[in-house]
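Human:
Take a look at this sequence-structure pair and walk me through the tokens.
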Amino acid sequence: MTNVYKKIAENRSSMSKSHLKIADYILENQNIVPFFTVGKLAKMVGVGDATVFRFATKLGYSGITNCNSICKAQSKLN
């Protein structure tokens, strides 16, 4: 299983400003973000719901829910 946070960090250099805001927020709040909905994450970061969805799909996930599920599973392993 690929570490989501590592994947985010490795892809920062190719991200748009909006995606960087999402990436930074996720990396700084790893304990709570996996439990956020798309709407909650978008609101906390100050971007639109579609931007959060595009962020997750750009990283290779089917959406933020898929990404969050992997984050939750990884946190249980640590």
Notes: The mean pLDDT is 82. The domain at 4-77 is CATH 1.10.10.10 (Arc Repressor Mutant, subunit A). The chain has five helices and no strands.
